[in-house]
Amino acid sequence: MKKTLALALAVVMSLGLLAGCGGKETKDPANNGGSSSGGSSQSQQGGGSDASDPTIPEGGTVGVCIYKFDDAFMTTYRNSLQEILESKGYKVTVVDGNNDQAKQNEQINTFITQKVDALIINPVMTSAADQIIDTVKNAGIPTVLINREPTAEQMSAYDKLVYVGCNAAQSGTFQGELILETANQGDINGDGVINYIMIQGDPENIDAQLRTEYSVKALTDAGKEVKQLNLTRGDWDRNRGQEIAANDLAQFGDQIEVIFCNNDDMAIGALQAIKQAGRTVNKDIYLVGVDALAAALEEVKNGNMTGTVLNDAVGQATAAVAEMEKLLGGATYASGEQSVYVDYVKVTPENVGDFMK
User: Fold this and answer.
1) CA–CA dist 42, 197 (Å, integer)
2) Which of 24, 4, 3, 40 is CA-nearest to residue 313?
């Protein structure tokens, strides 16, 4: 079954932490099912057998594994997780995987040796999901996976496992809609074709795959003709975003009408290249990202980005802790009921003030 719970925007604003993630709906990843202009909501695919009042172990310990600390979005996410967990009285240890799956595997094993009560894991690689799930299952530790979603089949191997994230297809769709909402719907030169470049994150990551696909699908579903001038892997990195955009602007020049970036860090890098090339966002080129990082919000406010998409780090951290406590209280999850999604929100020049401190 699927139930929707409102996550009050006031919670996000009060914590002052706004920031992208991904996931795929089991049946239809294009079904975003949420508001596009305010507030965010939590959608649960299934829900397990809930325990009404989870028993928190005295001095309960939680191990949190983050794929790498210098990811801007995951910095906001892990800080939110730590704040929420510690406010509830948990003893929390957060470790940096340094984008090294072998290192993260060692960290997980160390937590198991230390007999933590629960684990929250942001996998370095989705391809390592089987190994991670097998490890935590054998240890019998309730586990919440975040940000990078395994398949439903993989998760079904362990009934004390749940994934919390976002529907990355929704974020891609919203990026495309931001372009469609411009005065010329992205066709700056009026030739009937929207020429774009795509700066992709990690192509193994489901977020990158679905954002790449659905940002363009939103345009074609609206009847627009599109032409991809280039697609390059940027690994979520600001410097790579700048480098890729600079190379593409040098190669394709005024042909480029839209730059899609799978996250805000790469978009901010691309913005630097746009300025260096003498182009002007929202005049002769459009630029969109995902995450609603503070720096990106400022650029949207100042007219230097066409828009971004809120990846609700606080909402996801809140949901991750709530699911962890259900597991600690004895909840189990049946196959197909192990994914919880938090909605994305479109951020435009008109509503950007709602998401700034």
Assistant:
1) 32
2) 40
Distance, CA of 60 to CA of 29 (rounded, Å): 36
d(C-alpha 82, C-alpha 93), whole Å:
8
What pLDDT, on the 0 to 100 scale, is given for residue 59?
64
354 domain-assigned: no
What sign for the dihedral angle of Cα 88, 90, 96, 100?
negative
| 21 CB burial (10 A radius; 0-12, 13-18, 19+) | buried
Owning domain of residue 108: 2-166+311-344
Q: How far apart are CA 42 and CA 323, in angstroms?
A: 12
* Same domain? 90 vs 64: yes
Q: Are 85 and 114 in contact (CB under 8 A)?
A: no
Q: Residue 72 has what pLDDT?
A: 87
**Residue 112 sits in the same domain as residue 57:** yes
Which of the residues in the chain have pLDDT under 70? Answer: 1-59
